[in-house]
Sequence to fold (555 residues):
Amino acid sequence: MISGRTLAQGAGCECKMSPDFLKAVSLCHLSKGDYDALGLCEGKNVQLKNEFGQVVLAPKVDAGLRQGMVFIPMGPWANVLVGPDTGGCGTPQFKGIEVEVEATDASVLEIRDLFRGLRRAQT
Amino acid sequence: MIVEDAICSFCGCLCDDINVEVEEGKIKRVRHACRLGSSKILGHERIKAPMIRRGGELCMVSYQEAYDRAAEILLRAQKPLLYGWASTVCEAQKKGILLAEEVGGVLDSTATVCHGPSVIGIEEKGLPGATLGQVKNRADTIVFWGCNPAEAHPRHSLRYSSNVCGRFTPEGRAGRKIVVVDVRETRTSKNADKTVIIQPGTDYEVISALRMLVAGKGDVVPDEVGGVPKAELDGLAKTLLAARFGAVFFGLGITHSRGRYKNIDNALSLVTELNSHTKFVIMPMRGHYNVGGIGQVLAWSSGFPMSVDFTRNAPYFNPGETAACDLLAKADTDAALIIAADAASNFPRAAVEALAKIPVIQIDPYENPTTLISEVVIPSAIAGVEAEGTAYRMDGMALRMRKLVDTSYPSDEEILSHILESVHRLQRGLER
Fold:
C-alpha cells in the first residue's frame, strides 16, 4: 500500500469535515485486475487490514497501478494502516506497507466516527 | 478591488502571480491559481470562537480565557510538544520557538512526516541546489523521482520546470527531456518522455545502479535492479549524462519508503557524480507553503532544522527520539500545541491515539480532526491571506506574503504572543 496526494485530496485538505473530503480521500485505488479478482462491483467496498489496524474504503480502478499494489489518498483513513515506527529518522513509513485487501459490504466510516472515543477522559 | 500578483499560500511553489478579487472585504474570485490554491484562498466555514472542553464538550470562551488555559497546560507539562508550523509565516514561527524555550518543550514541524528524511540527507551530504528561476531558464533535462507535481504542485511544470519557456530554454516543453521514476504511472508521467517504473522500496538500489552507470562502472550492475532491466537503466544514465543542465525533483515517494533518509543521501551522491560530467541540481518538492520557513527559522535560532528539544540546557536534535511521532509513540510528551497543521489526520493511528491521551491546544482557522481531540481551540487568521509575513519557497527563496483581506481573527503571531504573556504572568505568580 502506498499513500499520497491527489488533486481532490489537496483541494479538500483545508476542509476536512466536509462530505467532499470524505469522498475524495476514503478511497482505495487498485488495478482493474485486482478489482475483478476481488469480485468488486458498484456498491461494494474493500476492507484493508494489517497489524496496525483495519479500515473500510470505497474502491476505485486506477490504470496507473500494477496488480498487487493499492494507493490511498493521504489522510486519516490511510493512516489507520501506517505503523508508528520511524526507523530512527522521525518519519513513519507511509508507503510500501503490506495490507490484506478483501471485498466487504461494510460502510466507510464518517470522519467524526473515525475519531469517536479516542479523546482522553476529561480531567 | 483586485489584488494583483498575490502569493498563493498552499504549496511550496509559492506562485506569485495570483489575482484576487475582493468585494466588501470578502474574497470573491481567484485567478491564475490552481485548484488547490483557489480552494485555500477562497476559504470556507471557520471556527467561530475560542473554545475550551468542559464536560466533554467544546464550549465557547473569550480569547483571554483560551490563552490562559493554553499557558497553564504548557507550563504544567514536563515536556510539551509544539508541533506544526508549516502553514504559517516565519514571524509566527519565531514566536513559537520563543514559547518552546520559555516553557521547556520540543518544537517539531510537519517536515517530520514529510521531507524530514530529506532534511537529514541534506545535512549529511549538502545540497547541490538552484533556484526555480535557474531551472526554468536553463534546465534541458528534468527528472521527477517519487513525486507527482501534476496533483501535488499543479503549476510547478507551467511556472518553473517541464513546460515553461525560459531565457535559454525558449522551446519550453519541446526543448526538454522529461523523465519520471515512480512505482506507478501518474498524471505527471503522462507528460514525460520516459517513465521508469520501479518496484516499491527499491529506490536506493536503483539510484546505486545509476551511480555506477554514470561513473562508468556498469560492469558491476546486475541484469535487473528494482524490476528495471539494466539496458533501461543504462539508457536513463545516458540521458542524464547528455544533459547540459539537469534537475532532479524528488518527493515523498522516496522519503516515505524503505530506506527513507538513506534514499536521499544516495540521490545526492548521484547528483554529485553527475556534476563530475555535467551540471546537475536537485530539489525536494516541499508540500506546505512554508515548511521550508520553519526549517530556516529553527536553524538560524537553534542550530537545527526540525525536532528541536528545548527541555535541556541547550537545543538538542535527535530525530528518532525528538520527532513528534517518536515522542508520542514512547509517551515521552505530556501536552501538545498543534498550530497550522492537522496532526490527527496526518500521523499514524497509534500516534493519534497517544495524542488523544494528552491535553491538546489547537491553533487553526478551521475545524479538522485535531479539533475533535483538543482541549483548547483557538481560531486564527489565515496566514498568507488574512495576515502578512515571510515564507520560504521550496528552493529557499524568501518571499513576502501580503494580507489580502481584513479579518477580526488574531494572527498566529498575535495568539502566540498572548500565550507567551500568559505564561510570563503565571510564572511571576508561581515565583511569588
